[in-house]
Amino acid sequence: MYISKKRIQLPVWGLLLFVFGCQDSEMQIDDTYVFYQPAHFPEATYTLENNPVTEKGFLLGEKLFNDPILSRDGSVACSNCHQQGTAFADSQQHPLSKGVEDREGIRNAPSLANLAFLPEFFWDGGVTHLDFVPLNAIETEFEMDETIENVIVKLNKSETYRALFKDVFDMDEVTSPYMLHALSQFMVMMISDNSRYDQYLQGEEVLSSEELAGMELFESKCEGCHAGVLQSDFSYRNNGLDAMPLDSGRNRITENSQDWGKFRVPSLRNVELTSPYMHDGRFETLEEVLKHYNSGVQIYETLDPSLKSGISISDDERAKIISFLKTLTDRDFTRDPKFFIH
Question: How far apart are CA 250 and CA 262, in angstroms?
Fold first, then answer.
């Protein structure tokens, strides 16, 4: 079961109870732990029919997400690199995210918002289903440096976790598919859909003249890649960071030379909060990002054709675009108490 912002979907018995048995105008339906489909979003891509969100499943996933037991030495949890205050991006302000023994990774950890609606994951699109996303972090040597087999051994040694998995999934022992299901139940609820921009789209908010001018400029100069309500077309592009890209990007997955140096176009939702920017975190500010597109684009054979002459952005236009980008910040999401550690 899930709910939409426009309507509540109830099983038949629930609908009958609502219509005939509960005429009390103060009756409330607690939808805190129910997945909902924002009315102005595309349909969810996550297979909810195979793993519907429940309160207990969500809370188990939240516990796992924040537990360093998933790492080899018990020092790193998922939340180390994905913190709520920065829309579940890396808030440590270092360009490359770090794992066990302070090992430096090869890319910056992106925001985890709106995962239920994405077609692929990671900067290179190496995973196509959310259930398998945590495996990468667990088993990569510069992240958690653990094996999934050993994680399951550790969880089964914990009376607390065995009891929780029994309660949530009616299982006598922890298994990897259900551990991943619990994590997904937590992550699919990371829905960011109530920024001032969202409210504007639904006729509930008025943007300033500078923000509207910035939106018009954004639509003419940036929307070719950052398209739609999710602020990305989810394509893979070389955006001219280097004349000779050292990180092969999408090529690591496809082994196609035409994908060298290409990375997934990130969503710009909550971009005000997710510094540093780019796959390697090289830019600290939005001003630096827009200056790159204006005058810093480097030519390489896989460079996106739309960037061969850069994007002309004056100082005044840059300020207006940034004003618009800040309307994409969703404080309800970054302060939602259901994501606080319970």
Answer: 5
